[in-house]
Amino acid sequence: MRVAASVDIGATRTKLALVAEDGRVLDSATITTSARGEPRPLVDGIATAMRPLLASATADSRALEGVGVSVAGFLDRERETMSYNANLPALEGFPLRRALREHLALECRLEVDSNAAALAEHRYGAGRGAARLLGVTVGTGLGGGVIVDGALLRHTGECAGDLGHIILDPAGRACTCGARGCLEALVCSAALSARAGGRPVRKIVSAARRGERPAVEALAETGWWLGLGLASLAPLFAPDRIVVGGGVATAGDLLLEPTRASYHEHAAPAFRDRARIVGSAFEGMEGAVGAASLFFGPVP
Fold this sequence. Notes:
The chain has ten helices and twelve strands. The protein is α/β, with parallel strands linked by helices. The strands form three sheets. A five-stranded mixed beta sheet has the order 3-2-1-4-7, with helices on both faces. A five-stranded mixed beta sheet has the order 10-9-8-11-12, with helices on both faces. The chain has a two-stranded antiparallel sheet with strand order 5-6. A hairpin with a 3-residue loop joins strand 1 and strand 2.
């Protein structure tokens, strides 16, 4: 069975993994992302954390196909460099693919993180069989990838555009992009944390599972905004399935049920019953799985 390594660079954390060609995560590690300042320390940190994973693959006599890299933000046309992300300015314009290739001495391929997540869902996860898939990941920010008839939609920054920055509430929370009330600003981990007294997402989710009302209500409000955002995106992409992943989505139906209710309340009749909203089964590893899959078949 073929194996590839992967790096999923988010604005807060960077996940590394060894992934089999059937989508299984064989080994993984996590480091903190240095979102600002010089990019070299982040690249050095990735290389240091990746070497034990590569060594374990060698010890098991697995031949590595290469390293897939999922990065938040827009990529240049050659997919060598991240060209823009308000949450990850350290990597803007930095030759990331070349730097990682030199550090790891392996072939590296870059993909937009939202595209990588959508690929993972389409190939191995909750998006299998969808003709028109919209995948969104909700964490430090919100990204969205779109696959139509098996092909990734690439029209801005090598992806479907920055879907998290549609404006839902002009008087809402300030967004890192400089606008106010963006979908991302209303559903991201910081927004959820603010609704629940400043607690981290994992503690909010744990409290909500125990039935703690403030935590349940914080997730419900977040889901209400997410459903409104998805209803706003539906006429653009006409999805038949919407997969919600990322750290905030680990809440499962505590987030998804309010999301579905809000979507059905706000979506136009033509799209209301067309799309099925489901959660990811990758527990936050969809970007890493999708990045590794760049070596397991043609990238649409």
